[in-house]
Amino acid sequence: MKPIILDVDTGIDDSLAIAYAIHSPELEVLGITTCFGNVTVEEATRNTLIVLEHLDSEVPVIPGAGKPLFRFPLKGNTVHIHGHDGIGNTLSGEPARSALNGHAAGFIVEQARQRPKELTIVTVGTLTNLALAIMSAPELVELVDRVVIMGGAVTVPGNVTPTAEANIYADPEAAEFVFRSGIPITLVGLDVTMQTLLPRRELQGWREKGGQLGGFLADMTDFYIDAYERFNPGIGGCALHDPLAVGVAIDPSFIRTVPMHVQVDVEGVHSLGRTVGDRRSKPASGPNMDVGLEVDAVRFLDHFLSRVV
Ligand code: BDR
Ligand code: CA
């Protein structure tokens, strides 16, 4: 089993990613750390605990950053995408258990020190917690096996602005810090996640065969697909951004990656948060990550559907 920490801003697709990870026997989920992003960090923590309750999972949840490293929160209102509660307006009460005391960054460092070169960190929200972890313990970059980051848009348009993807845009300095740190990164950006669509028809099966968990995930995903259809008429589904990052942690061959030097625009007037990849034949610097550019969407979707509910 591969030990992982999942860092989330739960979020509808984060919820699907959590279900996928918890249901995957290849992964040992050591803990789920939370950050601001789709919702506040308090809401992300609550939503994560609620999703875990539906999964009958006791995996620890550790709250982290409530705001970007240096800025006031940048990201716009996501109520129209994730609902008033972040989970498609499915919230019906508070979770029975609480998050752990302590901070996400400390948990990440502690877990990495316990298993040198073994830990995979999958981030599907802002990179603030990971940046804080590396700042507090620079040796983390040598201690982890790999970081799989859902974020960025290297060869395709952004989603929150014409050029920026939401997780990077929400804390561009944190992302740039992580990118420069030397930690081994696989970038799972919009380049690949926009090709992995979950068709709405699959929700029927979740409702019929998936018990209370299936109904819960189907209700929130219906809300998400409605939002996707408003922005992309005729799309008939939603992108599986965060689940694809979990999928890549399980099986890296779901995507084809290219080694590349990628930087974040932290000053741009029109392109703040853009992930700028040096795709020239003779780049100015050596690669700092592997960037996913192609995905075997059919094989990934089959795998995801076989696990999530
Ligand atoms: C990313 O932004 C968030 O809204 C989603 O949960 C996903 O992590 C997609 O750009
Ligand atoms: Ca997310």
From TrEMBL:
<dbReference type="GO" id="GO:0006152">
    <property type="term" value="P:purine nucleoside catabolic process"/>
</dbReference>
<keyword id="KW-0378">Hydrolase</keyword>
<dbReference type="GO" id="GO:0005829">
    <property type="term" value="C:cytosol"/>
</dbReference>
<protein>
    <submittedName>
        <fullName>Nucleoside hydrolase</fullName>
    </submittedName>
</protein>
<feature type="domain" description="Inosine/uridine-preferring nucleoside hydrolase">
    <location>
        <begin position="4"/>
        <end position="301"/>
    </location>
</feature>
<dbReference type="InterPro" id="IPR023186">
    <property type="entry name" value="IUNH"/>
</dbReference>
<dbReference type="InterPro" id="IPR036452">
    <property type="entry name" value="Ribo_hydro-like"/>
</dbReference>
<keyword id="KW-0326">Glycosidase</keyword>
<dbReference type="GO" id="GO:0008477">
    <property type="term" value="F:purine nucleosidase activity"/>
</dbReference>
<dbReference type="InterPro" id="IPR001910">
    <property type="entry name" value="Inosine/uridine_hydrolase_dom"/>
</dbReference>
<dbReference type="Pfam" id="PF01156">
    <property type="entry name" value="IU_nuc_hydro"/>
</dbReference>
